[in-house]
Structures are given as structure tokens and as C-alpha cells.
Known about the structure:
InterPro entries: His_Pase_superF_clade-1 (IPR013078), His_PPase_superfam (IPR029033), NUDIX_hydrolase-like_dom_sf (IPR015797), NUDIX_hydrolase_CS (IPR020084), NUDIX_hydrolase_dom (IPR000086), Nudix_hydrolase_domain (IPR051325). The chain is of the alpha+beta class. The protein has two domains: 5-128, Nucleoside Triphosphate Pyrophosphohydrolase (Alpha-Beta Complex); 134-289, Rossmann fold (3-Layer(aba) Sandwich), CATH 3.40.50. It is 29% helix and 28% strand. Strands 1, 2, 3, 4, 5, 6, 7 and 8 form an eight-stranded mixed sheet that branches. Strands 9, 10, 11, 12, 13, 14 and 15 form a seven-stranded mixed sheet that branches. It is elongated, with a radius of gyration of 20 Å.
Amino acid sequence: MTDTVHAAGGVLVRDGQVCLVHRPRYDDWALPKGKLDGDEHPLVGAAREVLEETGWRGRVRLALPEVAYTLPDGRPKTVTYWLMDAVGDGGPVQDTDEVDEVAWLSLAEAAARVSYADERAILDHVAALPPVTDVVVLVRHAHAGDRKKWSGNDALRPIDEVGAGQAELFARICGPIGPGRLVAATPLRCKQTLEPLAATLGGMPIVVDGAFAEPAEAEEAPAKAKLAAQRLLELRSAGSLPAICSQGKVIPHLLAALRDEADPEPYKTPKGSAWLLTWSGDRLLEPTRL
């Protein structure tokens, strides 16, 4: 079986314009993108490629449709795209072997200039989106060993070696999203899941909030999750993009409540896994698993 080539890129927006790059090797105009480095997360790879090819840092706002096609040598290729806001002052193109010119264009101008139909479809998709107003990151705490083998207070059960790796990965994923506030449910393992991210953000404090903790009884989870959903909306409205660490019995019901859906099953979340939640006003767009 031929291995799939995985790549990622972004639609980078600045002052209502989007960035295209000119690649002299192909003499084409394209969205900034490139192959992932090994097991690099697509969101992290997309942000890296955007910086290398445009000179601008992108702050991720929303996942866009994936593009799949076959390379001339027969290998399948997939490209994951993300909507990004350009942040900072920008700088020169870093990958000058790949890109020799960048252009900031309106969406209509970019759609007319881009060389590939699949990327034109991505731009058309972006043009049809409502404006993004708020973003929240929601993560389930990292792996914390076996509850049955822990003899102490379960609230004090720490993350284990696997969980530490998951927490480090979550910190890398969040870098291009840019959290400005960290909130953890009361168990120690929730706070520990956010600690590597807090370190990358200059020692940002982690606020403990019992609204995101599991109830004592499993049957109380749906009601508790409605309270958690309300608290999440309060944090969203307060500004300073929050990254929130909660627990496995809360998150599925919380997301179902936010989506006004009865079935929490589609939102079951493995330990250490996260969601990117994006709003346009009061409308929650499709949640994205990270």
C-alpha cells in the first residue's frame, strides 16, 4: 500500500485580505502549505509552513475542509487547511527556495489568481463563512494511570508518563491558537495537563474552576455539563481566549448542550485529546477535534 503524503497549510487573513505565495519551481500561485515533519500535528505544521512561506505568524481560528488528490507518482496526498489571522509585524519569507513572492489580495482576487481548483474551493468556502468572533480550546485531562490502582484521594491522582507526553503535545498544539487564559477542573491531573502550556506562555496562572469537574455520581453528568456549558460561555464572552481542561464524563454532555443536541456520543473524548470551538456571534460552528 502506498503511504499517504500528509501536508497542511492556511488561509492567512490580514485586514480583510488573504495571502497567496508564488512558487518559482512550479510558476504557480497557491495557498501557503507544505508537508508535515514526521508525526507533526497538522495544526502545528500548518502554522510552521505559513510562517516559513509568508514571514507572518498565523493565529488559528477555524479548521477548513481537507483537500485530497493524487500526486504525479501515484501517491495519495491530503492537505489540512486552517483559517488564520496574521499577527505581529511580519517579516521576510524564510523559505526562499520555495517562495519568491507573496501577494495580499481580496478573496475574490485570490480566487481568480490561485492556480488550483481545489484551493479556489477553499477560498470560496472562506468567503461564505460568517465572521469568527470567539475561540475556545477544550481538552480532556491527560492520562493519569489506573484509577483502580490509586489508593489515595482521586482528586490528587497525577498524570503519568504517557500523560506528561500528551500535555507537552497539547502545549505545542495550542501555540498557534494563542490562549490568553487557562482554566482547569479541580482534580490535580487537570491542572497538570495545562502546566506545559502555562510554561510556554511565560508562567501564565491556571485558574481552578469546579464548574468543569465531574460530579460524584455518573447520572448527574448531564445536569452538571449544562452548568459547565454556561460557565464556558461566560469565559468565552470575557475575552482572552480560554483553554479549559475538563473531564471525560463532562465534555460529551457539555458539547452536546452547546450544540443543542440530545446525543453526547459523537463528543466522547479520549484522555489528552482536545477540541477547537469557534463561534460567530452566538452560533457555535462545527467543533473540530485536535
